[in-house]
Amino acid sequence: MRGFTHQLMALVLSVGAGAAMAGVDIQQWVASTGARVSFVETHALPIVDVQVDFSAGSAYAPADKSGLAGLTASLLDAGTQQRDENALADRFADLGARFGASAETDRATVTLRTLSDAREREAAVALLAEVMAQPAFPPAVVERERARAIAGLKEAQTQPGYLVERAFGEAVYGDHPYGRAASEASLAGLTRDDVVAFHRQHYTAAAAHVSIVGDLSRAQAEAVAEQLTRGLAAGQPPAALPAPALPAARVSRVPHPAAQSHILIGMPGLTRDDPDYYALVAGNYVLGGGGFVSRLMKEVREKRGYAYSVYSYFEPQRVAGPFRIGLQTRGQQADEAVAVVRVILQQFIDAGPTQEELDAAKGNIVNGFGLRLDSNAKLLGYVGVIGFYGLPADWLEQYPQAVSALTVEQVRDAFKRRVLPEHLVTVVVGGEGDQTAAVAPDAAKPR
Amino acid sequence: MRLWKQSCKVAADRRDAATAVGRETPAWQWLGALALGAAIAAPVQANPFETRLDNGLRVVVKEDRRAPSVVHMVWYDAGAMDEADGTSGVAHVLEHMMFKGTETVGPGEFNKIVAGVGGRDNAFTGHDYTAYFQQVPADQLERMMGLEADRMHRLQLTDEAFAKEIEVVKEERRLRTEDQPRALVYEELMATAFHAHPYQRPVIGWMTDLERMTADDARRWYRTWYAPNNATLVVVGDVDHQTVFRQAAQTYGQVAAGQLPARPVVEEPPQRGTRRSVVRAPAELPYVAMAWPTPTLRDPGADTDVYALQVLAAVLDGYDGARLSRTLVRDKQVAQSAGAGYDGLARGPSLFYLDGAPAPGKTLADVEAALRAELARIQTEGVAEHELARVKTQAVASRVYQRDSLMGQAMEIGSLAAVGLSWKDEVALLEGIRQVTAEDVKAVAQRYFSDDKMTVVSLDPLPIKTLAARRPSVKTRH
Predict the structure, then answer these.
(1) Cα four-point dihedral sign A385, A388, A394, A398
(2) Chain A residues lying within 8 Å of B285, measured CB to CB
(3) Nearest C-alpha of chain A: how many angstroms from B208?
(4) A439-443, B275-279, B454-458: which has the minimum mean pLDDT?
(5) Are A313 and A284 a contacting pair, CB within 8 Å?
(6) B88: closest CA of chain A, how far (Å)
(7) Which residues of B, range 97-116, sit inside 8 Å of A by Cβ?
(8) pLDDT attached to residue B8
């Protein structure tokens, strides 16, 4: 019976993989400027999406200048040599184009969505090039946005959802660049000179990856990539980030008058090119990544009604990004909920998924691969990751194949080696405002 | 910040397998995007296709063959506005219970089947509707139809499952509302702006009502409203519409029509003066939200004020650098943030919203005055032709961009049906915006925003004294 199931699964998997591959042809080259480029040509809709990723995320800001990466990204469209911020916003809007800029840990990301008609496309791309290469960082706007960032941070610091993220980052990463978060003091110390210097050093062609998806030809895409990176400094590829050290297990509590405790449990996890990548993400699907069907969801939400949201995920980054389990539950039952989560995690580390669970995970990941690529916007996201992190151009084909080949033993082995209770930190924020009664401790035992 | 009346059941905030890039968009974000999108229409074409089954189920199919993927949704014409006093939130609770199994499909089994074929599924509830969806490989559509039809009439609603799930819903309310100061402000705004209309009640329900709710309340809700003649099926993706019509007849066609109760029409009595209320909650920044009663779109060819109000909202807050952020945030630096919201698409009455938080050194009164000054400026000076043109360009472009998302297209079809309109009105909706003149915008700004019709709710931040006092970390064993 089991053998039959396996044959059936193999058939389903190969069909799924074939469907996923259809139509995703990522063309890659290096522009004359030194920028790397990835392009998917698709003419189904009159839309062009462009994303430029720079190694200019928060991990690349100096230790005493936390907040600089985010501030710099947000100020790109604060004015250029030719136009002030209002003129820029009006121009994008008049073209029907959408511009965005943001910074995460590794990357600063600049995006443009435009109609593909030559008139709109050419004007929008020219405007994007202007914004990336010639930001003026007007002193008054820098000053205003810094003040807004500080006010925004003060507001965020009253919200448990933000506090738990920040405390978790600090607890998992300590002094590592991934653990740094903007403070009022660090933001107050940022100057226009800092922004100018950060832009000059990090928004360079050598540190850039350009993703283009949509209704244009290869020749047009090449021209777009040239135009977008021509004005950038050549620059150097970014310095390597240090690997994070593993923290000692501990529990941090931050009191807050919220009714719910916001809880995060985790440690440094995966790199983008990690050899355990597939085993860990497939395993995590079973543990807490698979939405309604995950073990955490079943035990914490469905069986006990402890939480609306409970999940786990690996966030692969240039160096080990976090593995985390997260949930929110009313304060009086926070300890019981954490106890349940720990038992479930330990059982999973010890025994791994069942064959049936792993097959279900494979079914979801492999059969669903096409759904992850069924719009230009989704495709752009993947192309950006593949290009920025230097993954193989056929990564989208390798992915379902690698997942299909996994065994229970491989997943169990990977979790045993990589999710280490002696290094798991737990952060609990809030719950002091819970007015309801505590739960009986024995209600918490996993069945 | 925009204010939305929907509430939804979103799966865990998860980053699964290949979501290298970001988290999946929760349903409420699609709903947010829809506010503008729904106001904007598509070019005329044969697609979508519509039919009605003998049992009354409306079926709308839009063929989009770009990828082997399909979105399958069922929208019930039953939402929080149909609830009775004392059982607020029951529409949403029942939405949760719909995942607990039927006479033939075990609890959680539907989720498991969807996950196994690589799909995702969820549901969401609003004042006007409750909707369920799956996005799956196109060859799985018929199976989804069978399962969704099954739970339309064979739900097993046990006391035990209810007792667990009501706790989940309370946690959801804590997460979305109790611990979210601005959500509390919005809840208060609705409760204050509406004295008679059921929009006064929050979709997720008052906590006090959730505490008293019983499984029988949920069963009664299900028996009353879950019937094919009270629903719209929406399918968008790599499908042939004739095949889908046939499959719908074979699956949903098996469900008997129900006897729907008469729906009371509640008209909000006229407001006779400014209403003000205050919410006190832990926060740093004060915040204010204001609302005025405005028309709801009933006749797409004639209700021109709705289109003019949509344009007014877009001139104020429809793009980066629109008037509110330009004037209040950038130039005068009176606000940390400022926004406007209106869509005019609903079963019940509509509100036009303004909201904002003060910049450092400014007060809530400053922000409120500045927001109203922007309205006053349009009342006296109107809007510029180039602003009008910009807003219309945005509307057309948004329309094109929306076609990139199967879910976005299905949402538009379903949400129009949910407010008594149709995808067929999309053309009229876009044309309505195109016809708006600067004079029209000025006229609606003068017509609807008197002080006597205004409701204002402000957030009075409670200091959090304990914040700095972090307890020392302790070592712990696992």
Answers:
(1) negative
(2) 151, 154-155
(3) 12
(4) A439-443
(5) yes
(6) 19
(7) 99, 107-108, 111-112, 115-116
(8) 35
Q: Which residues of B61-100 are buried (b: 16+ CB within 10 A; e: fewer)?
A: bbbbebbbbbbbbbbbbbbbbbbeeebbbbbbbbbbbbbb
DSSP letter, residue B81? G
The closest alpha carbon to A228, from A218, A220, A216, A217, belongs to A220
Question: Left if phi > 0, otherwise alpha if psi is -120 to 50, otherwise beta: which for A352?
Answer: left
Two structure tokens written together for B327: 């004037």
Residues of chain B with C-beta less than 8 angstroms from the C-beta of A371: 67, 69, 118-120, 135-137
Helices B438-448, B364-381: axis angle to 10 degrees equals 130
Q: pLDDT tens, B90-134?
A: 999 999 999 999 999 999 999 999 999 999 999 999 999 999 999
Inter-chain residue contact B118 with A368, CB threshold 8 Å: yes
Which tokens belong to B376?
């006053």
Contact A429, A262 (CB under 8 A): yes
Place of tokens 């509302």: B177
Residue A277 falls in which region: left (phi positive, over 0), alpha (psi -120 to 50) or beta: alpha
The verdict on B319 touching A (C-beta cutoff 8 Å) is yes
Determine which helix (DSSP H) or strand (DSSP E) holds B91, and give its type and residue range.
helix B90-97
> Tens place of pLDDT for every residue, chain A, 447 residues?
333 333 333 333 322 233 334 458 999 999 999 999 999 999 999 999 999 999 999 999 999 999 999 999 999 999 999 999 999 999 999 999 999 999 999 999 999 999 999 999 999 999 999 999 999 999 999 999 999 999 999 999 999 999 999 999 999 999 999 999 999 999 999 999 999 999 999 999 999 999 999 999 999 999 999 999 999 999 998 899 999 999 999 999 999 999 999 999 999 999 999 999 999 999 999 999 998 899 999 999 999 999 999 999 999 999 999 999 999 999 999 999 999 999 999 999 999 999 999 999 999 999 998 898 999 999 999 999 999 999 999 999 999 999 999 999 999 999 999 999 999 999 999 999 998 765 544 444 444
What Å distances lie between residue B223 and A339, B94, B124, B216, CA to CA?
A: 39, 11, 19, 10
Mutate to test the interface with B, among A53, A215, A292, A366 (most CBs of B within 10 A): A292
Chain B partners within 8 Å of A252 (Cβ): 470-471, 473
Listed in sequence order, the residues at least 6 apart from B369 whose beta carbon sits closer than 8 Å to its beta carbon are: none
Choose from A165, A209, A215, A374 for mutation: most chain B CBs within 10 A: A374
Q: How many residues does chain B have?
A: 478
CA of B411: how far to CAs of B26, B32, B397, B415, B464, in Å? Answer: 13, 11, 18, 6, 40
- B350-358/B335-341 β-pairing: antiparallel
CA-CA-CA-CA dihedral for A201, A207, A211, A216, to nearest 10: 80
Hey, is B284 helix, strand or coil?
coil
d(CA A345, CA A353): 11
CB contact under 8 A, A284 and B16: yes
| Token pair in block for residue B131 | 């909707």
- Chain centre distance of CA B279: 23
Q: Which residues contact B58 (CB under 8 A, 6 or more apart)?
A: B50, B52, B231, B232, B233, B417
User: Mutating which of B14, B40, B139, B475 best tests the A interface, going by the most A Cβ atoms within 10 A?
Assistant: B14
Per DSSP, the three-state class of B392 is: helix
Please give the model's pTM, rounded to 2 decimal places. 0.90
Tell me, what amino acid is at A408?
V
Residues paired with residue A261 on neighbouring β-strands, in sequence order: A329
Cα dihedral B160/A357/A374/B39 (nearest 10): 10
